[in-house]
Amino acid sequence: MSDYLHRTIPNLKPFNFDRHHDALFIDQQWVLVNGISNKKSIYTFKTDNILEIARKDIVIKTSWTINLNNILSIETEDGMITVSAYFKDDDILVLNNQEKEEFALYINTTKYEDDLNSIEDIQTFLKEKYTKKVSTIIYDHEFYFIENSKEFGPFKVEELAKKVKDKDISMYCFVRDINEYDYSNRLRIIDLIKELE
User: Fold this and answer.
1) What sign for the dihedral angle of Cα 45, 105, 114, 134?
2) What pLDDT sits at residue 12?
3) Which string of b and e fits 89-113 if b means at least 16 CB within 10 Å?
4) Closest by alpha carbon to 150, among 126, 173, 130, 124?
5) Checking DSSP bridges between strand 71-76 and strand 58-66, what pairing results, if any?
6) Beta-bridge partners for 175
7) How far is it, in rounded angstroms, from Cα 120 to Cα 100?
8) Fewest beta carbons less than 10 Å away: which of 19, 66, 163, 169?
């Protein structure tokens, strides 16, 4: 992966044919983020190596292939380009041009009900996506809390919320994730509970 891409978008996972091709890549509606304010484009990679690019009322059909090293060749209006594919997560795809320091960022809108037509729509999409993700992580995760210089736990957030409701502990007790070693993040039980609301 090029250094500039890694610096711009950290924690990318390389395209893995077995994991990504059928489940996350094929027949999905990928909205191109680059230049969305000027022209919205939706890319759909089909199983028969057809790439459909939808723009307003026009659908352009072109071709794509993938090689053994998971490098894609895509026929574009400007000719053939070679890209390596990465996933930021299941809904964000990055195609990195092999010949230039350029990349294209796509968002999978197949299961998203609202249209993405602008930068503001993308910001809303990402905010909703990551708020839901954080809530899920917090809900499933366990935390220790400290009260009167003693540590207790680990507990899930719903257990901590019940203890607060029953007035067994203060909502202002500091908590730490089970993978952290101290309370330097200054996170309190009330902060966790707010994330779930």
Assistant:
1) positive
2) 84
3) eebbbbbbeeeeeebbbbbbbeebe
4) 173
5) antiparallel
6) 145, 187
7) 28
8) 19
Closest alpha carbon to 32 in 23, 18, 45, 20: 45
Q: ∠ CA(132), CA(185), CA(5), 5° rounding? A: 60
- Exposed/middle/buried for 62, CB within 10 Å: 0-12, 13-18, 19+? middle
The one-letter code for the residue type at 1 is M
Q: What are the tokens at 72?
A: 């894609």
The residues facing 142 across adjacent strands are 156
Position 37 confidence tier, pLDDT thresholds 50, 70, 90:
confident
Q: What are phi and psi of 106, to 5 degrees?
A: -125, 150
User: In this predicted model, what pLDDT tens digit does every residue of 133-148 receive, in sequence order?
Assistant: 666 667 778 899 999 9
> Which two three-digit tokens encode residue 43?
């890319």
